[in-house]
Amino acid sequence: MPAMAPDQVRIYELKRIDLEGAIVIDGFPSVGLVSSIVANYLVDTLGMEQIGIVESPAFPTVSLVRNGQPQHPVRVYAGHPGQDRAKDRIVAFVSEFHPAPAIIHPLATAILDWVQEQRCGMLVSPEGLVVEKSAESHRGGRGSKLADVKVYGVASTRKARDLYIEPNVLPFNEGVITGIAGVLLNEGRRRGFDVLTLLAEAQSDYPDARAAAKIIETINRILLRTPLDPVPLYHEAERIEQQLRSIQRHAAEKAPSEASSPASNPMFR
Question: Given Cys at both, which of 38, 79, 105, 217 links 230, Cβ 3.0 to 4.6 Å?
Fold first, then answer.
């Protein structure tokens, strides 16, 4: 097999399954690591199985070891909430690093190519939206404080805006969405494919599991026919935040030069 170009991306399927109509989750790190927490929570809660990997010479040269097994930096999982497999199918792209700027466009394009080839129904990018709140006020309490977290949305097509955004969340009318999510939105518009970006108010200086739980709640409410319970993520938010901060800190201490590189941000899970 010929060597891959530095900006080339390939998706290798480890297991072929029917993904027609599936909801695909973009799980690359975002503000507050919201997208990554959402994707990992879905994988763990639904018992999703790994069905593929994503490869590129631009990815960091690491192996993430979990339960004694090496894992690629970008993995693809699939599963079903509940027992009725005729209902919702969910696919998640999961990663522990921020892609380097040069690989973002080819990576997003490869993902959308694959999603369309699999005849998936739509692609959802959970994101954090930076808010000017103190960390203490954002963390305090799980009742009214959580209710205060707003969720905004934007969609690539008029149909998706009418069906999912405008009746359910605050429209994101002005602003900038960067990275993988931004390219996916633009490509979705160009291709006429439904891409949704859901943005929950989040803190940018620590992993914000509460914002991620708000996104899970929103996905459950507007997209899924099979109920998905976000309550455990609310209850585990503090533990998840502490765990991710600890892993980031240790990774930065062991490899400070790599930790400062956009292509090889510290592993956090």
Answer: 217
